[in-house]
User: What shape does this take?
Amino acid sequence: MPKTTNEILAHADELAKQFEGYDFDPADRENVSPETRLRLAALKRADVEKELTEAVTEARAKGLSWAKVGVALGTSGQSANERYSTQTEAVSAAAASSSGPSVSSRRTSGKTSRSRSATAGRTEGKKAAARSESRAKRNA
Assistant: This one.
């Protein structure tokens, strides 16, 4: 192990030469631990997911339908929408603020209203059922 500054520098030069002269051998992949391979694969997947999200965002910003996005991704338009719509909404919202509400934001707000109405209806139905049950117990 080098101890002096000159020994450390000489050792660093030696290591640099080894790295610079390294020729990749596919068999080296077999010497990598399973954990390292998993980490490398996860990093690659994250890079690809980022690239896909950017491509979908750009395609949607340029007016490509979810159906066409789905076909390009090898899935349905609905699946593509479910998977990527949250990432693309920020871009759509920024564009909408400069040109008024977009079709997708109008659709989203409609879904939200319908969802709230359905939830309110279910809640009221449960309350009515509880009142009926309470009356039945008092009358019994």
